[in-house]
Amino acid sequence: MSSAPTSGGSTYQSATPTAGPQTYQSSVPKKPRRRGLIALLVVVFLLVGLFGAGTAVQLKRELPPATLATEIATTLKIPGAAPTMPWPSEGSAELMIEGLGRIGGSGGETAEPIGSVAKVMTAYVILKNHPLDGDEEGPELTVTAADVADHDRRTLTGQSLVPVQVGEKLTERDALEALMLPSANNIAHQLAVWDGGTEAGFLEKMNAAADELGMTDSEYTDPSGFLPTTISTAPDQVKLARAALKFDVFAEIVELRDAQIPVAGKIRNYNDLLGVDGVFGIKTGSTDQAGGNLVFAARLKVGAKNLVIVGAVFNQPGANTPEQLVAVNKVVRKLLAAVEKTVKEYSVLPAKPVGTVQTAWGSSSTVTPKTALKVVGWPGLAVKVKTTTTKPGAQVSAGQQVGEVQASGVRVPLLADAATSEPSLWWKLTRRP
């Protein structure tokens, strides 16, 4: 069928939609989608900026300090069995070394008479109450008729004495020299009255001083030690000797071989061991009841270390004073020889790793003493050890000192054995704040 002609002979398509789907272009701009893309880009740029700033902060943050741990005990023992010393078969003995400790002792469980060793306490109390410095002579003691009478009475019992005269002037130093060198009993009595007013008053001071020093097994009943009721033990007398030697004047006097005092003139030290095996004091003592006794001090050099040995040997047998003193001197010399043989330099800490330095990121280095830690002593001696550490920083270099270990005055640096590594970039970026 032909279409109907239009006016003017033209043809047209109907505006009525045909059946089926139809597509067409919208004439409206798509602004919302463009805005979303811009927003997404802004967020991305912001995230990149923030990430970059955070990375810079992480990379520039200060590194945390490394940690240092050591395994050094606070007390170390010198390797080996304790030495066997030639202790006397009779009587008692005690030995110690200043700054190191007690070597040991024998007997001494029961207090015994000590003879003229008691004069160490007499001198100690006098110097405590009337100290002398340097070359000072101290105040004067005037010999009275009572002092002369006391001297004369003592001659009847064969006591150690120095002659005195009425009106004689003895300085405190003179009197101490007479007391300690020829062991003058009459001067012990005179000093006691001078200081205490009466001998009884002075004895109170002697026993009070013993209590202060922890001499729990000592009892003084006379200032000279002549009476057998004046008793003590070797350990107690070593305590006293150590205290007395702190008075420089006392140490000087007991080392004198002789001295000059008024009336008596030249007096001699009864200690025949002076200068033998390093002995420089302190006091002999002998009676029938006490036997032979010696409280002694001796110097011993071990390497660069100067030591002082303080000891006591008591109640050695003998028929008379010379025999008793010979017996005690033999024991003392044997003990000193054993000490010299035994007391040496020993290693208590070898130059092996004793700890670890570890960084926060897990790198580590062992720590080792620069040299072995060596101390002077004897096998079995317990030595106190002090370990100090420094702040190693975030990491350490090889050979860096990170601490110190010390014992008996000896110091050894603690060194890092190797350098710790640098932290990785990943660790720096991911570590927590």
What does this structure look like?
31% of the residues lie in helices and 26% in strands. By secondary structure, the protein is α+β, with helices and mostly antiparallel strands. The strands form 7 sheets. A 6-stranded antiparallel β-sheet has the order 1-15-16-21-20-19, with no helix packed on it. Strands 4-3-13-12-11 form a 5-stranded antiparallel β-sheet. The protein has a two-stranded antiparallel ribbon with strand order 2-18. A hairpin with a 2-residue loop joins strand 12 and strand 13. The longest helix has 30 residues. It is elongated, with a radius of gyration of 46 Å. The N terminus is likely disordered.
Count of DSSP-assigned helices: 10
Q: Strand tally, please? A: 21
How widely separated are the two ends? 89 Å
Shape by Cα distribution: elongated
**Spatial order of strands in the largest sheet:** 1-15-16-21-20-19
Q: Helical proportion?
A: 25-40%
Summarize the structure.
This protein is of the alpha+beta class and 433 residues long. Helix content is 31%, strand content 26%. It has a six-stranded antiparallel β-sheet, with no helix packed on it. Strands 4-3-13-12-11 form a five-stranded antiparallel β-sheet. A two-stranded antiparallel ribbon has the order 2-18.
For this entry, give a set of tags.
433 residues, 31% helix, disordered N terminus, alpha+beta, 21 strands, single chain
